[in-house]
């Protein structure tokens, strides 16, 4: 027996799961574990109203729709509760250069041939002068640009949500309670560990209560009370690729109907988000404190807002990177306690969800080192792809108007990302690694949106006679146009489908 086997065999079966923290990560974990494993385990969540949550995280990606389906969450009830709107993609403004805009949508462009993606046919069509803009071949892209939405029965429409994060936590809290999860209010003042194994044994609260458990999930946000401060798991810092380390967030009243996309507007030393909900707009500025002073950021932020400011902007400091192990001993870190790639592509809630799904699938009768290693390897790999995708938005800029952007253009990028971009530039091809979040369409839309024009296309596209290619492209464009034409205005639909309570 190896030391690792001895460690595993000395552990008790996992019956009591204790979740530390009641932000989005904590309540998503409680909801999923209580729903899926409810009777087999006890789920207890500890949260502190006094400490509160980070208060952001309101834009999502389509995988959340799937997560809700798995949990059998009623979409209309959810959307009403969170005063949600639809997100068909992200509008990137001023990223390539000031005044430029493109949309990264959740849709699929055109139709692929098994040997080559649609972009090859489109590239040849461009060369022949018979293809129009890339947005004309993707329903989600066109619908987003034209502010339209409805659920579509045939072929569907790929969408995500904008939601009120505080309402979402409350919604999941009620959901979890219905499935047997227990909530404890209190501040954790000590994390107790076993001297011999180093495992966590209990959380001691300010009022003296102790919450014992077999498996602990650290959802304490940037504090990382269990995985970081107690178990001392290190953190890989990615700030040499992702320069931003600060944010200010606030909420404003809505001055117009919500559009079905998030806006990400690049500025002199970072960018701003606009997340339109039914009743208000979530706003934030993300910036690098090396290149912009806090008061300068605050001034730039407040002077750019529309509508009435509903809350004083609150500051957030962060360090992009990942915990060296998401799971260590009997503790799993989810959410901000585990990793943070900055919020540009709204990926953290997705990564929380992936952590939960992997945990549910690998749920241990008893914790074994080999299962822990597998979990850590899977999550680290998925996170690396997300990191590369986000870094790409910065790397592919043509901006050199401020020291921040000039420093970015000098930045060395991860070799994995360099390979993807080079491959696309040289051949027009992209690839999708199993389990990776962003599909080929996402890579293509962002690379082309940020000015990468492939030098070549696949020879399959030459096999089609020009008149066949014209028909092929026209058919798709007509389908996209007629589908978009059937869709009502986004907010007209939402007010009927999921009115605010
Ligand atoms: P938190 O929300 O910070 O929750 C931590 C919990 O732990 C709280 O309940 C707190 O009270 C509790 N806690 C901490 N210490 C103690 C203690 N001692 N005792 C008891 N309880 C304690 N993600 C997206 O997917 N989309 C986005 O658009 C997006 N935008 C973002 C913008 C910014 C600027 C930042 C920083 C992040 C953004 N994220 C986004 C990430 C998003 O915020 C997180 O995914 C989400 O909020 C989950 O946070 P969390 O639950 O890990 O932490």
Automatic annotation (TrEMBL):
It is an enzyme of class 1 (oxidoreductase). InterPro entries: FAD/NAD-bd_sf, Flavin-dep_Halogenase_NPB, Flavin_halogenase, Trp_halogen. GO terms for molecular function: oxidoreductase activity. It comes from the Bacteria. Keywords: Oxidoreductase. The keyword Oxidoreductase applies. Its EC number is 1.14.19.9. This is Tryptophan halogenase. It comes from Luteimonas terrae.
């Amino acid at each position: 027996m190896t030391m690792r086997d001895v460690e595993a065999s000395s552990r008790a079966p996992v019956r009591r799961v204790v979740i530390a923290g009641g932000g989005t990560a904590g309540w998503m974990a409680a909801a999923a574990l209580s729903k899926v494993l409810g009777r087999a385990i006890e789920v207890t969540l500890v949260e502190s109203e006094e400490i509160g949550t980070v208060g952001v995280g309101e834009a999502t990606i389509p995988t959340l729709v799937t997560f809700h389906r798995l949990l059998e969450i009623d979409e209309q009830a959810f959307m009403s509760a969170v005063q949600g709107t639809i997100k068909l993609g992200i509008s990137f403004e001023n990223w390539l250069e000031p005044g430029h805009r493109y949309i990264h949508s959740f849709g699929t462009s055109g139709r692929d041939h098994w040997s080559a993606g649609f972009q090859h046919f489109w590239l040849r069509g461009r060369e022949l002068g018979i293809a129009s803009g890339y947005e004309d071949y993707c329903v989600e892209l066109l619908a987003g640009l034209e502010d339209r939405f409805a659920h579509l029965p045939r072929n569907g429409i790929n969408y995500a949500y904008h939601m009120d994060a505080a309402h979402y936590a409350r919604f999941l809290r009620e959901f979890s309670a219905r499935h047997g999860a227990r909530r404890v209010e209190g501040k954790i003042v000590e994390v107790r560990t076993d001297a011999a194994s180093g495992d966590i044994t209990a959380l001691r609260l300010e009022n003296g209560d102790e919450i014992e458990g077999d498996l602990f999930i650290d959802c304490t946000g940037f504090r990382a009370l269990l995985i970081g401060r107690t178990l001392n798991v290190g953190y890989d810092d990615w700030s040499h690729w992702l320069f931003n380390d600060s944010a200010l967030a606030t909420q404003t009243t809505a001055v117009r109907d919500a559009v079905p996309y998030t806006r990400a507007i690049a500025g002199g030393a970072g960018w701003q988000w606009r997340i339109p909900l039914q009743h208000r707009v979530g706003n934030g500025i993300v910036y690098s404190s090396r290149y912009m002073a806090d008061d300068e950021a605050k001034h730039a932020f407040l002077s750019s807002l529309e509508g009435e400011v509903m809350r004083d902007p609150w500051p957030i400091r962060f360090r992009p990177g990942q915990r060296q192990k998401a799971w260590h001993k009997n503790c799993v870190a989810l959410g901000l306690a585990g990793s943070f790639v900055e919020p540009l592509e709204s990926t953290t809630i997705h990564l929380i969800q992936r952590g939960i799904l992997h945990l549910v699938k690998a749920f241990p009768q008893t914790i074994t080192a080999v299962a822990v290693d597998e979990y850590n390897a899977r999550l680290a790999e998925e996170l690396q792809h997300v990191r590369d995708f986000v870094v790409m938005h910065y790397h592919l800029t043509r901006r050199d108007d401020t020291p921040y952007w000039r420093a970015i253009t000098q930045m060395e990028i991860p070799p994995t990302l360099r390979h993807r971009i080079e491959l696309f530039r040289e051949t027009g091809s992209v690839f999708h690694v199993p389990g990776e979040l962003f599909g080929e369409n996402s890579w293509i839309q962002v690379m082309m949106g940020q000015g990468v024009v492939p030098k070549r296309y696949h020879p399959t596209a030459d096999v089609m006679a020009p008149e066949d290619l014209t028909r092929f492209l026209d058919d798709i464009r007509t389908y996209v146009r007629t589908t978009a034409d059937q869709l009502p205005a986004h907010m007209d639909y939402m007010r009927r489908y999921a009115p605010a309570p």
